[in-house]
Amino acid sequence: MQFTTYQIAFVSILPIFSGLSSALNPSCRPGGNFDLKKWDLETPIDNGSGQPKVIPGSDLTPAGDACKNGWQDKGSDHQWFFKESTDGSMVMKAPGYSSSRPCIKWSGSNHCRSEFHEDTAAWSTTSGTNRLHVKLSAGYGTKICIGQVFQSGTGSNKPYLELYYNSNGDVVTGVATCPGGANDGCGQDTTTIGNVPFNTQFTYDLQFEGGVLKAGVNGNLKTLKTFFTTPKASFKFGNYNQGTDDASVHIFELSVQH
């Protein structure tokens, strides 16, 4: 089993999921505090062709001094992706989308994002260990998708599970009821698994092992009902903004196991 903890090296003596924000270096760019080499970042920045700019992990956590040279948004005041100067957390912001206020998004989506996806091949949902752990806080936004299990091998380029943070503090799972989702006239089976106020740190975990899908807030894992099988999947996390207003999250801890 491969186990990768995305935190700076000197915290390895701490418990794996301690999530102590004091371990983050406020002087470092995100790729210096978190090992992002195996993640690609989708942004609401125009890539020059009207599509979202995707930042590879090799730019986020480059060889050499990632603390100084890791990529962050060079827009006005580091607009969408940057490190928080007070605590070193990874700030991920995304604009809202509406017909009167468009933003840079993928053609197959109605929403904009600052969101990571795994850059490696999708993994089996029936064998091995597949776990994502994130510690974060939400600053503002009506509805934010903060994590995903994305299906692969079904013929549909759609989420299998989306984890939402709502403005009332509810943390909600949405499990697809068919592979094509809304394209096939299907919705999501939703379950509220926690409640956390704005600007309050909390953890979530996603697991998909042995064909069993689980999600939890602050360590309280729940097994979720599923409606179809996906032979492979991958993780996403960050700020996939579902609202028409802007949204912001801060990431304090990230780990993944495969």
From TrEMBL:
Endpoints of the signal sequence: 1-23
Keywords: Lyase, Signal
SUPFAM superfamilies assigned: Concanavalin A-like lectins/glucanases
Molecular function (Gene Ontology), one example: lyase activity
The UniProt record lists the keyword Lyase: yes
Location of the Alginate lyase domain: 34-258
Pfam families: Alginate_lyase2 (PF08787)
Gene3D superfamilies, per the entry: 2.60.120.200
InterPro entries per UniProt: Alginate_lyase_2, ConA-like_dom_sf
Protein name: Alginate lyase 2
Source organism of the structure: Massarina eburnea CBS 473.64
